[in-house]
Structure formats: structure tokens, C-alpha cells
Write a structure and sequence with these properties.
Shape of chain A: globular
Strand content of chain A: under 5%
Distance between the termini of chain B: 18 Å
Structural class of chain A: mainly alpha
Helix content of chain A: 55-70%
Number of helices of chain B: 13
Strand order of the largest sheet of chain B: 5-4-6-7-1-8-14-13-9-10
Helix content of chain B: 25-40%
Number of strands of chain B: 14
Largest sheet of chain A: none
Structural class of chain B: alpha/beta
Pfam family, one (chain A): PP-binding
Protein name (chain A): Acyl carrier protein
Shape of chain B: globular
Radius of gyration of chain B: 20 Å
Distance between the termini of chain A: 20 Å
Subcellular location (chain A): Cytoplasm
Oligomer: heterodimer
Strand content of chain B: 15-25%
Order of helices and strands of chain A: HHHH
Number of helices of chain A: 4
Keywords (chain A): Cytoplasm, Fatty acid biosynthesis, Fatty acid metabolism, Lipid biosynthesis, Lipid metabolism, Phosphopantetheine, Phosphoprotein
Number of strands of chain A: 0
Pathway (chain A): Glycolipid biosynthesis; KDO(2)-lipid A biosynthesis; Lipid metabolism; fatty acid biosynthesis
Largest sheet of chain B: 10 strands, mixed
């Protein structure tokens, strides 16, 4: 797992209170990890904080899996 | 008329994370007061409080028992305390497995006086320092007062009335009184009712200290700071925690063989129409509230064995006592009257519910809890049993709880043992 993927996983585990092994790159925040729309807003804020990236609302709306988040961050972080 | 009984209890207090621990420590004369550990209070006028202890403490509270870690992170502590106390009460009442029809007839009325002040303080600073985009998406629903009732309803699937009282320090008593009425009026068969508070944060301490309501002269002797009726009292000690009861229609409780603690028989309410923080010097509002509760209960003043006073350890104590004397007689008709705020501090919106539970346990165990630190009783206390220093074994068949709040709002509850 890349450094980014590991840090993403850690944030998801902390924020959603789920087991780390459930947080695969394919896992959907809503369907697999029990998140609701507000949880995703909070996760996006945490990613922005952790990686120093800005994730605008229209981009955030397209993030539905852990892998989507990891990919977006890797493409946009400084 | 539909009768209302208490069939379950839940407590989170500075003396324990559950009912039996809190009660045991209260009867043993222990104090929940200490230096504030929640934040650096060294620049505050009051540096002490009655905090709910962490899970590592001998009588601490473990939030992980009943509240998801995700919810703990999203909401203010007053909601966590309320959710846990509600869970305790449901378990105690044997209601963990309700069918859908029962859930539709079960409601929630758990309020708070102030609500999520620590979170409001935090996010306000956050907004100013880092901008609107950094404010938590859980800010609003994690701080507002009716979200204990909301969270309890969601957690346990309760679809009856969902209500939340906000009447400052009378909240807990009003919550129970209002919920009992909902059962009496056939809105529900079961109600989770009570109050919660957690405002031991810089803004909360500073605000009450600036209102000249807090004790600031006993910072070096925290356990002696809350001293209702004592000549040297000089303000309340801020507490935190929650109390929740299960109220149930009598026939419903009997039919399922529930353990019945007590019957809620009287509820009195009044307004002082006088001042925002100070009680009316003649205690007229308090008197009206007590008289109404007795009248609704159909009891004579002499029937009451124990009064849990509002008794905050301020000048108001003797006003309340004078009002009680007018209602019950110069010796309170033989009733004992104590202020458990001497041990747990002032739980604000949680106070009336926690203290009502202490009243119920006094009836269960036939023992009344003490007023700590009553070393030098003030004028006007002569001839009254204020249960100084140590708990007292005595017959307790009927009780009255008083709760009075800022704005001049008063509530009294009368409960009695059931045959």
C-alpha cells in the first residue's frame, strides 16, 4: 500500500469507527463502510487537512470509494 | 385516570458512571468536586468543578459501553451522557427487546439547560482562526438540545413523542413532569425522561463566574466548596452529568411484570416574575410550585418524608427553605430536606432528573442522602432536619423534588412508593 493509501485508510478508520481490514481501496464509503453524506463531508475535510490539498465540492461529490479518494489526493497533492 | 410509574433509572454523575455507584458514593458522603482537569483553568476565578470522572477512575464513566465512538466524536458530551443514561434506564426497565408496536408507543423527553457550549466555543474559535470551510458538518446537530432525544430515538427505534425541555436548571424536573403528562394524556405508554448537561469549559465557567453565581473562594478546598445552608456558602460548584428515568403507564408496567420504583403523583410549575438570575426574595414562585405539586398529588404536607432541595449553595437556599416552611410547617412536618448538590455540584439541566432519581432511591432503600459541609447552619434553619454530613436511615414513603432555574422558572415533583 502506498503511503497515501495508508494515511487515507487511517483517517477513514478513525472517522468512521470501522475495522481497518474493511477499508479496502474498493470499499464504498456509503455502501460498505456505513457513512452518510455528512460523514463524507467530514472525511473530505480531514483529507484536506492531512494532505494539504483542496477538494472542491464538485470533486468531492465524485469520491465514492476509498480508492477514489486516494487517487484524487495522489493526483493533486503538492 | 392513567397512572404513571417509574420502571427504570440511569445516571451519569460526578460520583459514578451508573446508578448504583453514584448512589453508594452519595450515601457514603463522598464529594465529586476537585480541580478542573478538562482544561487549563488557572486564569479563571473558579478553578474547581464536579467533573464526571474518566473510565480509569475508581468511579469513572466509560462512554464506550453504550455510545458508538463515531457518535462520541461528533457530539458534545451532554449528548453522550444523556444517551448512556437513557440506555441504562432502558436496560434497568427490561425494555431492550421492544416490539414495533411498543416502540411506536414509547417516546423521549430528555432536555438540557444550555446544551453544547464546549462545541460552540470550539467551533467559534475554529471559524475565526481557520474559516467557515473548517467548521464541522456535525456542528449543529451535535450541539443542539433536542439531540439527546433525537439520538435516543434513533438508537432504540422509539417512535413516540420526541420532546426536549429547555428551562435552565429546572429542565430535568420539567422533562419528567411533562413526560408523565404525555403518558397520562395517552400520547404514549412509555417515556424516557430526564436531563443532561456538560458545560465545564472555559466559556461556561467564565460565564457563571461573571454572573456571580459560582463559588470562587474555595479553590484550594474543592470538596468543601458546595455547602448549602451553611453560613459560609458563597456560590455553587458547577457539575455535569445526566439522569434519565423510564416512565410507564401503571397497567402497562404491571402487565409485563416490570419492577416498579415509584409513582409520579404530583407536578407543580410556576414563574417568579421577578429577576433573570435571583429568586424572588419571598420565594413566592417556589411556594406556588410546591403547593401545586402537593395538590395534584392529593397529598397533605405531612405525607412528605423527604425533600430534595434545589439548594445550590447560594443566597437562594434560605429563600427556598422559608418557602418550604410556609408549605410544610416550621419543622417541615417532620420531613428531612437535603441538598445533594453539596456532593455532586449543580448539574444545571441535569439536576432535576438526577435529584429525582436520588429521591426514588431514598424510598427504595429507606435512607436519605446528606447535605455535606453544613458546619454552621445559617439563620432560619433551626428546627429543620437538613441531614448534615451523614446519610440518615428513616421511613421514606413520599418525596418532593424542587428545581428552580434562571428566568425564574420553578418545578416541583412529588413521587411516592407504590403498594
Amino acid at each position: 500500500m502506498s503511503d497515501t493509501a495508508e494515511r487515507v485508510q487511517k483517517i477513514v478508520v478513525e472517522h468512521l469507527g470501522v475495522e481497518a481490514d474493511k477499508v479496502t481501496q474498493d470499499a464504498s464509503f456509503i455502501d460498505d463502510l456505513g457513512a452518510d453524506s455528512l460523514d463524507i463531508v467530514e472525511l473530505v475535510m480531514a483529507f484536506e487537512e492531512e494532505f494539504g490539498v483542496e477538494i472542491p465540492d464538485d470533486a468531492a461529490e465524485k469520491i465514492s470509494t476509498v480508492g477514489d479518494a486516494t487517487k484524487y489526493i495522489e493526483e493533486h497533492k503538492g | 385516570m392513567r397512572r404513571v410509574v417509574v420502571t427504570g433509572l440511569g445516571l451519569v454523575t460526578p460520583l459514578g458512571g451508573d446508578v448504583e455507584t453514584s448512589w453508594k458514593n452519595l450515601i457514603a458522603g463522598k464529594s465529586g468536586a476537585g480541580p478542573i482537569t478538562r482544561f487549563d483553568a488557572s486564569n479563571q476565578k473558579a478553578t474547581i468543578a464536579c467533573e464526571v470522572k474518566g473510565k480509569d477512575h475508581e468511579w469513572g464513566f466509560d462512554p464506550d459501553k453504550r455510545v458508538d465512538t463515531k457518535i462520541q466524536r461528533q457530539v458534545d458530551p451532554f449528548i453522550v451522557y444523556g444517551l448512556d443514561a437513557a440506555g441504562q434506564a432502558i436496560e434497568d426497565a427490561g425494555l431492550t427487546e421492544m416490539d414495533q408496536a411498543t416502540k411506536e408507543r414509547t417516546g423521549v423527553s430528555i432536555g438540557a439547560g444550555i446544551g453544547g457550549l464546549p462545541g460552540i466555543e470550539y467551533e467559534s474559535v475554529n471559524l475565526h482562526e481557520r474559516g467557515p470551510g473548517r467548521v464541522s458538518p456535525h456542528f449543529v446537530h451535535g450541539r443542539i438540545i433536542n439531540l439527546i432525544s433525537g439520538q435516543v430515538s434513533i438508537r432504540y427505534g422509539l417512535m413516540g413523542p420526541n420532546h426536549a425541555v429547555v428551562t435552565a436548571c429546572s429542565t430535568g424536573a420539567h422533562s419528567i413532569g411533562d413526560a408523565a403528562r404525555m403518558i397520562r394524556d395517552d400520547d404514549a405508554d412509555i417515556m424516557l425522561a430526564g436531563g443532561s448537561e456538560s458545560t465545564i469549559n472555559p466559556l461556561g465557567i467564565a460565564g457563571f463566574a461573571q454572573a456571580r453565581a459560582l463559588n470562587t473562594g474555595y479553590n484550594d478546598r474543592p470538596e468543601q466548596a458546595s455547602r448549602p445552608y451553611d453560613r459560609n456558602r458563597e456560590g455553587f460548584v458547577l457539575g455535569e452529568g445526566a439522569g434519565v428515568v423510564v416512565l410507564e403507564e401503571y397497567e402497562h408496567a404491571k402487565a409485563r411484570g416490570a419492577k416498579i420504583y415509584a409513582e409520579v403523583v404530583g407536578y407543580g410549575l410556576s414563574g417568579d416574575a421577578y429577576h433573570v438570575t435571583a429568586p424572588h426574595p419571598e420565594g413566592k414562585g417556589a411556594e406556588l410550585s410546591m403547593r401545586m405539586a402537593l395538590r395534584k398529588a392529593g397529598l397533605e404536607p405531612d405525607d412528605i418524608d423527604y425533600i430534595n432541595a434545589h439548594g445550590t449553595s447560594t443566597m437562594a437556599d434560605t429563600i427556598e427553605l422559608a418557602a418550604a416552611k410556609r408549605v410544610f410547617g416550621d419543622d417541615l412536618g417532620g420531613a428531612s430536606m437535603s441538598s445533594t448538590k453539596s456532593a455532586i455540584g449543580h448539574l444545571l439541566g441535569g439536576a432535576g432528573a438526577v435529584e429525582s432519581i436520588f429521591c426514588i432511591l431514598a424510598m427504595r432503600d429507606q435512607i436519605v442522602p446528606p447535605t455535606l459541609n453544613l458546619d454552621d447552619p445559617d439563620e432560619g434553619t433551626e428546627g429543620v432536619d437538613l441531614v448534615p454530613h451523614t446519610a440518615k436511615k428513616r421511613e421514606v414513603n413520599a418525596v418532593l423534588n424542587n428545581s428552580f432555574g434562571f428566568g425564574g422558572t420553578n418545578a416541583s415533583l412529588v413521587m411516592r412508593k407504590i403498594d
